[in-house]
Write the structure tokens for this entry.
Amino acid sequence: MKKLVLLGGGYGNMRVLLRLLPSNFPEDTMITLVDRTPFHSLKTEFYALAAGTSTDKEIRVNFPEHPRLQAVYGEIEKIDRKEKTVLLEDGQVVPYDDLVIGLGCEDNYHGVPGAEENSFSIQTIAKSRTTFEKLCGLPPGSVVGIVGAGLSGIELASELRESRKDLKIKLFDRSDRILRDFPEKLSNYVKEWFVKHDVEVIANSNITKVEPMHLYNHEDVIDVDAIVWTAGVQPVKIVRDMDAEKDKKGRPIITEHYHLVDDENVFVVGDCASSDLPASAQLAEEQAERVVKVLKLRWNNEPLPEKLPAIKLKGFMGSLGKKQGFVYLADTTVTGRIARLMKSGLLWMYKRQNDS
């Protein structure tokens, strides 16, 4: 049997499985999915788990079942491209003929002293659970500092405000305005929501040091009771350690057909793949669509096109608690209740599609 191995059960490899199962791959091929957990986690909703407004079960989807789909659970220790094997920490060895790496990302602390040791994270479901326990266990009136005002930071701050109206929330934004790269209308809407709901946004911030109960912003020392880091990501260490050509962010460079420059049997999708487009679940899924196309053409002994269709992201959606939100789609901005309903509807459709 030929072996197609998928590393990571995130958005990219879930799309691969959706397109290949139940019968869109050769009968002489076995698919192996390697992940640390026995379910697909909805990473875009980890902020709600950490804030205590969604339960663990609400942000999980079962992996599909199929006679020629094998699930292997554990922590990956090494990808050995020479031997075409994946080594797990518990000693398991998973051989492959084709490999799709979709292991995602982890926090990037940008060399800030104490940031990793003294802050909480929402990058994995396990870390989000720990963050929930900390944030929702704080005494009334505690101060929470959220470092990074990208989409994750914005959604965490707003959802935490809805969960804990007694907390003092400080959101540190490196830019001069929220969502600086998007229309001012969108920025103003989010800013006004934070003002109305008493979330302090500290613009033009530069966190230079983190201590257990202190944030150093420029020359100011700010007392806090808990810190959550949402200020950027990098590929997971197993990918950063790979012997492959990488970009400035440590992400493997991929060809027009989404495999490594020097290895046509190793594909990379999602947050750990080099791309000019912003990392997102949408990007991972679009990359996965093209990987599946390449695999099918090869399986049928058909030539590959010189170029695959370019990826064009449709936009993004964000929530401000359970009742308000914002959408930027096809250069159009939608805010308020309708935007929140759009995001909830998309999440419902995704879960229904992947859990059927």
About this structure: Residues 281-299 form the longest helix (19 residues). DSSP finds nine helices and 23 strands in the chain. The domain at 109-231 is CATH 3.50.50.60 (FAD/NAD(P)-binding domain). Residues 251 and 274 are 5 Å apart (CA to CA).
